What we know:
Blueprint: E1 7-16, E2 25-32, H1 52-57, E3 61-65, E4 85-93
Antiparallel strand pairs: 1-2, 1-4, 3-4
Amino acid sequence: MTAPNTVRQQVLVLYLSTSALDSPVVGWARYDGTGATSPTTGDSDEPPYPTGVAALEDGWRLFQAAQLIPPYPGAEHETSFLKHEFFFEKLTSA
């Protein structure tokens, strides 16, 4: 059982089309430490925010951004992981 007014973390992972926070969201994941929701992969056709800046404007705090690693020579057009990953959090009372 959780004590009243316990602070819990919600996490939002946004994958952007470039390293700029104002670029379009191309992928996302949500995690809710409050237990109020149970988001899953593919549970929405639309991203929760159009850009990383929009998430900041809605009160999400950015706490990690992906390193900018250039592609290996000759691999510029190969398919790989989504590179521009940004982690956001909100702290909320449970």
